[in-house]
Amino acid sequence: MTTIYNFSAGPAVLPKEVLQQAAAEMLDWQGSGMSVMEMSHRGPEFISIYRAAESDLRELLAVPDNYRILFMQGGGLSQNAVIPMNLVGRKGPDATIDFVHTGSWSGKSIKEAARYAKVNVAASAEASGYTAVPPQSEWRLSPDAAYLHLCTNETIDGVEIDFAPDVPAGVPIVADMSSHILSRQVDVSRYGLIFGGAQKNIGPAGVTVVIVRDDLIGHALPVCPSAFDFKNVAGNESMYNTPPTYGIYIAGLVFQWLKKNGGVAAMEQRNIEKARLLYAALDADDFYQNRVAPQYRSRMNVPFYLRDESQYEAFLAGAKARGLLQLKGHKSVGGLRASIYNAMPIEGVQALVDYLNEFAGR
């Protein structure tokens, strides 16, 4: 039977061990007689699952004590509205939000945030076709912004920001880390808020993780729905409304899997190896093309193009026959894309590299 490797950008591959454990516990979680899907979110069984997940994530990312971890619904896209509704109130009705525009997802964030405050695009990579991060020397930051928003890994465009920039005193950095959270070490204390949809490196779609500093909680605009007010969510252990219980359970299993496999530091080294292997194959000649400047290439999302555009259907058909799935690029940019998240084993990347070489040679 052909081994299947799923390169989807999200919902994405999950660790096999996690799926096996979830399957074994589907009908009866640890002798409770219930599936996690059936549990009350206020019962002791699920409370223990939730608290273990929160504790493990705090340990994995070394989250300081003055930050809250929230498990919310609505996806990363909804946070483009939830975050300004919670943060701009600190600065009053004339608040400005700074953005660095590095691709599709930061563009969506800019558009949504403009509904709640003035937006300053401090820097844009549009001129490069979103293939690089504008030099920090060119950023035009507001001295008293409500916050600076960055998408630190553009899932569609394949651009990754691997640094926390310097900002004016008192300006928090908000980072959309949806597609590379837990893939590399990060100093959480450099950020005011980190968020990410779970469906790439954490678990199934339906859960959004928000890590927010205490002083940024409690400033929601009157228009903010009560279920999205960080103060309500934090004050009720993410259970102000019914949380996505099964998604949190799977996320907790992923956190346990990460800890058993050496944590984020070990995962980062594996991701460096996988990315080097794949980019080396793409750069071997001009048959394939990755357009992102090498210093900003994502370790997680690798878009690439064929020199001969008539060969895309043949490439995808051949890949599918070999068990290499979900390699079609995003509809907005075309081409091809391989997402190689934490759960993608190096064997999967090697299988893709072998096929890349075979197809180019043929």
Structure description:
- By secondary structure, the protein is of the alpha/beta class.
- The chain folds into 2 domains: 17-260, Type I PLP-dependent aspartate aminotransferase-like (Major domain) (Aspartate Aminotransferase, domain 2, 3-Layer(aba) Sandwich), CATH 3.40.640.10; 263-361, Aspartate Aminotransferase, domain 1, CATH 3.90.1150.10.
- The chain is 33% helix and 16% strand.
- The chain is built from 9 helices and 14 strands.
- It has a 7-stranded mixed β-sheet with strand order 2-10-9-8-5-3-4, sandwiched between helices. Strands 11-12-14 form a 3-stranded antiparallel β-sheet, with helices on one face.
- Strand 6 and strand 7 (159-160) form a beta hairpin.
- It is globular and about 60 Å long.
- The mean pLDDT is 96.
- It catalyses: O-phospho-L-serine + 2-oxoglutarate = 3-phosphooxypyruvate + L-glutamate; 4-(phosphooxy)-L-threonine + 2-oxoglutarate = (R)-3-hydroxy-2-oxo-4-phosphooxybutanoate + L-glutamate.
- Belongs to the class-V pyridoxal-phosphate-dependent aminotransferase family. SerC subfamily.
Give me the CATH fold name of the largest domain: Aspartate Aminotransferase, domain 2
Identify the strand order in the major beta sheet.
2-10-9-8-5-3-4
Overall mean confidence score, pLDDT: 96
Assigned CATH superfamily of the largest domain: Type I PLP-dependent aspartate aminotransferase-like (Major domain)
User: Can you write the helix and strand succession as a string?
Assistant: EHHEHEHEEEEEEEHHHEEHEEH
CATH C-level class of the largest domain is: Alpha Beta
Class from helix and strand fractions: alpha/beta
What is the total number of structural domains? 2
In CATH, the architecture of the largest domain is 3-Layer(aba) Sandwich
Report strand %.
15-25%
Q: How many strand segments?
A: 14
Termini Cα gap: 25 Å
User: Based on CA inertia axes, which overall geometry fits?
Assistant: globular
Low-pLDDT residue intervals, each spanning 5 or more residues: none
Continuous helix count: 9
